[in-house]
Amino acid sequence: MRVKVCGVRQLEQLPELVKAGVDFAGFIFYPRSPRYVLQQYTAAALKKERSINKVGVFVNADPEELLRLVDDCGLHMVQLHGDETPRYCEKIANYITVVKAFRLTETTRVEWIIRDFSDTCDMFLFDTEGAGYGGTGKKFNWNLLLNSRINKPFFLSGGIAPGDEEGLKAFAKEPVAKSLFAVDINSRFELMPGVKDMEKVSNFIRALKEPSAG
């Protein structure tokens, strides 16, 4: 199972993330976030990092500015976490792989909210509804997806924490999980915003990749 660690703000942790088995590092380009990566590093410094797949997380960004940062930072894909329209997503997807994030409530009709984006995005990400933009760190009810037809690869996010490994492996056996591309972890694996607890990350990935007991 692939793993994305989002909200990275310490470039010196990238080799440790790779060693732990992380597949994607998420860098937040939303200035209001405490994990805003350009507050600490330049685009040129990010571009030099080639050891891991880099995902840029944007919220309602100007499309031209976004595409400029894709080039300047050497990003491999972008995650759109705001109110971006299908037309906006299509414009970006003509240039780079697009992951559109959706935040769900207990009453959300998953197939309804994704339908207009199916032809304009490459992947989806499912998270928990909350105030403002970006991830909330709140536990996501994965059962909301069980009876849905999701026609794109998707990231599973939303408060994933140490101890969730067996639950994730059980979810991966559900029919909907045939489209599960990766799990996305962030705040539950931090020492402080943007600084990852590498022991927690390593232990989580090790347990996630081990066969389930029994």
Radius of gyration over all CA atoms, rounded: 16 Å
How many H/I helices? 7
Just name the CATH architecture.
Alpha-Beta Barrel
The CATH topology corresponds to TIM Barrel
SS-based class: alpha/beta
Describe what you observe in this structure.
- The structure is a single chain.
- Helix content is about 25%, strand content about 20%.
- It has about 210 residues and is α/β, with parallel strands linked by helices.
- It has a single domain, classed as TIM Barrel (Alpha-Beta Barrel), CATH 3.20.20.70.
- The longest helix has 12 residues, at about 200-210.
Summarize the structure.
The chain has 214 residues and is α/β, with parallel strands linked by helices. The protein contains seven helices and ten strands.
Topology:
Blueprint: E1 2-5, H1 14-20, E2 24-28, H2 43-48, E3 53-58, H3 63-73, E4 77-80, H4 86-93, E5 97-104, H5 110-114, E6 123-128, E7 154-156, H6 165-171, E8 180-185, E9 190-192, E10 195-196, H7 198-209
Parallel strand pairs: 1-2, 1-8, 2-3, 3-4, 4-5, 5-6, 6-7, 7-8
Antiparallel strand pairs: 9-10
Considering the chains and any ligands shown, give keywords for the structure:
214 residues; alpha/beta; TIM Barrel; two-stranded antiparallel sheet; 7 helices; globular
